[in-house]
Amino acid sequence: MAIKASTPWRTIGDIDMQLWQRVIDNAGGPVGLVRPEAWAAARPHSALCLAMLRMESSYGSNFRANPATNHNPLNLKRPEGGGYMRYDTWKEGVSGWQVRITSPTHKDGIYARTVSIADLINVYAPPSENDTGGYVGTVVKLLNDWLPGWKPTETAVEPEGDDMAVTFGRVPRPEIVEAIVLKPVHYGSAYGYDYCPAPRTNVGVVHHETMGRGSGWWYQGFFSCTNPAGSKALQAYGRSTGERCANALVDFFIDKQGVIFMLNDPFGQRAGWANGGGVGQPGGLEGDGPAFYARFGANGINTKLVSIEYEKLTGENFTEAQVQAGGALAAWIHDRDGQSWERHPYTSKYGLVTSFLHYEFGTTDCGKGELDDISRVQAVTKGIMKRYQTGESGGPVVPDVPQLPDPEIPGGLTLEEAKRRFGTVRKVTLDGKVTTGGFDPKGIISLAWAHRAAEEQVWPKIETWYVLEDSGKPFDLVTFSNDWRMARVAERAGMQWVDLVPAVKDAA
After folding, report:
1. pTM (2 decimals)?
2. In this structure, is residue 200 part of a structural domain?
């Protein structure tokens, strides 16, 4: 079957990694674009990506207004205007393209709403600025050259243990009220969020309770930092900043009536301090949290999991409207990531659970009283995913979470090896109290160390964990025997690797 301009672009599928590498290398493209991780970042649309790389930058070998130092070979523009996106690596530049063309929220899904190759390219490279017809023709020719005997993928797969074919991408985006929280743009860690160099890719959700009352607009103000015309709650209360301006941000809020408010774009570049990474005690991980952490690391808790707050007081139950809204929102997110309905909230894609309660990641009771409520939400989620992925009708389906073994320690270490290499930590609190501890297979600090050690093949011993105070706010600092440092800069922020550079006095 020949690929045509009218062929749905989502059905093109992937190109062989070796062909990807050979084409880019022969064109003189950068080494970082040749690497397997760049190809993987383009999946499941790597064939289309390679063809568009030819048109946008001659496979990363020819740049004009967009310099090569931007690591942006597909010429992505900043959504807010002002020039080209800048990424730290070629992999992130490719990932940015893949996320953008599939995002239902980027400019209201301007790319995601397209169907055919011609539709997509007419939006991506409009005739007002490009020879769009020539662009489409070249892309189609390249795809046919690279994929002889091509058959449409339809992104259909046979899920493990299930007889029914699954088609992803059909679960609808639920009705959402956009109430984006206003915070200063900060390319680091501040104002309750971390800035991500590339748009987030989410693999699951974390459910929260507000432990308070308020509308979606009230909570917009609760997290906001400024008071321009857009912040309704702050205007109403005559305030310039919200209570959680500096140290928290969530993605979604669902009120008692089941109305879903988007407070932060979950596919944008802000990862709110919401889901955890808290270290109030050695540990901080419970339930299914350690398995997720072992796979995705500390940063993944906030960058790869969508936070959903439900309006409720402790001891209350979710309303039926909240259960239905939370299920619809979660179904859309899990389906976007290509997860099958069959064993939800577990997915064989990663071999772990991807629907969590807040307490599973932080030293908090948030979520411990919502186990029955979340089971109802997960049942609705599973039923919606089944309906759209298989074409079968039906209501909620009982979640199926298998009994899983304890997650492996990153790097393949045994527990005894990890304890020996990690050493003993001295924890020093503000009041001067000193306690000691060792490697904890469910501990945030321990698992972060194991992740990095396995990646860099060095195993420094832990030294001291300082619990400090900075301008009246908690500040945690962990030191190791080499130059590694971890810090938690705010109450709701997670532990992060940091580089502490001493201040240098200006030469007179």
Report:
1. 0.58
2. yes
